[in-house]
Write a structure and sequence with these properties.
9 helices, about 325 residues, globular, eight-stranded mixed sheet, 8 strands, alpha/beta, single chain
């Protein structure tokens, strides 16, 4: 068993959503196979039973468990699941001695390590575990599910294909030459920063309200991450952003290299008006089997599915029905 790092965990309720009276909450930690200790919030229904269905939640990319993932986890716990929302490696309250960096490999392992942990709880049925990935963690969730048959069902919510955006930019408007220029810039930065005590950050979301001349989705990010609706002091996106050196981490990777390996159930949910919708739709086309479903939420934008927006757009009834359908005894 891996040795845990001692983490400093906030015990007060510091979420961006109200605490539910229907569930119990506690802070927990677990270790991934890279030896990084991760922090998580465990939610259990007050009417806890033996051998319950469980869900692990993470995302959006650049968020922390006190934001959207915690909302999803708490809401699904209200519906009878044991749930856990965690901070990815190097972010939030989780460990890792370089902060605010990412890795497709390590972050995929974060999900699998969370399955390791939750499957050991004596009130969880280890044969009935699913995951929810939001935004960039939607693609990471699918990657983890393709790696790990213990994950019986996966919901990818308002998903980004992060390697696709990293390599080709938004709407595939980038080029190989532009990508190479970025790599040259990052390579020079790595040389410059090798002996430095600080690493340059990319910058988080623009202050709210964002300027009129930026795309609507940029304004939507600011309206979530930079206001009381979604701001959190430990969130990467709410503050200084990712370490710039991480930028090239997506450029020569791909999710679902073997989509045929993802045999268990998948639900991809996108907003009708989400700028990221094309990524979810194209990813859905790669999936195989009759246990895969794409749901488009009418009128919703990308960030509406973080917290529901003004119109409560998150289709929790559908998500609940999906997991109840597929987290069942395989013999049935």
């Amino acid at each position: 068993m891996f040795k845990k790092e001692a983490l400093k965990l906030t015990q007060e309720w510091d979420k961006t959503f109200d605490k539910s009276d229907l569930v119990d909450h506690e802070k927990v930690t677990f270790v991934n196979h890279f030896g990084i200790t991760l922090a998580a919030d465990l939610y259990t229904p007050k009417s806890k039973e033996d051998k319950m269905k469980a869900l692990v939640v993470c995302g959006p990319f650049g968020a922390v468990k006190e934001q959207a993932s915690g909302l999803y986890a708490q809401t699904m716990a209200e519906r009878g699941f044991v749930t856990m929302a965690f901070d990815p490696s190097f972010t939030g309250e989780s460990g890792g001695n370089v902060r605010d960096v990412y890795s497709l490999d390590i972050n995929t392992e974060d999900f699998q390590a969370a399955i390791d942990f939750i499957s050991q709880l004596n009130f969880v049925d280890k044969e009935k575990i699913g995951i929810i990935g939001i935004c960039g963690w939607g693609c990471i969730a699918l990657n983890a599910a393709a790696n790990d048959p213990r994950i019986k069902a996966t919901a990818a919510i308002t998903m980004y294909d992060m390697p696709r955006v990293g390599a080709w930019g938004y709407f595939d408007e980038g080029s190989a030459d532009a990508r190479y220029e970025t790599k040259k810039t990052i390579a020079a930065l790595r040389t410059k920063e090798y002996l430095s005590d600080t690493l340059e950050k990319a910058g988080g979301c623009l202050e709210y309200p964002a300027p009129d001349d930026v795309p609507d989705f940029v304004k939507q990010y600011s309206a979530y991450y930079k206001t009381k609706r979604g701001y959190h002091p430990r969130s990467v996106n709410s503050n200084a952003g990712w370490v710039l050196q991480s930028t090239t981490g997506w450029m020569n990777n791909a999710i679902l290299t073997h989509p045929e390996d993802l045999r268990n159930a998948v639900l991809i949910v996108h907003g009708e008006k989400a700028h990221s919708r094309y990524m979810g739709e194209d990813t859905f086309k790669k999936l195989q089997g009759d246990n895969k479903e794409l749901l488009i939420v009418e009128n919703a934008t990308h960030t509406d599915l973080y917290d529901g927006g003004e119109h409560h757009y998150i289709p929790f009834d559908k998500i609940n029905a999906f997991f109840n359908q597929y987290l069942v005894d395989e013999k049935k």
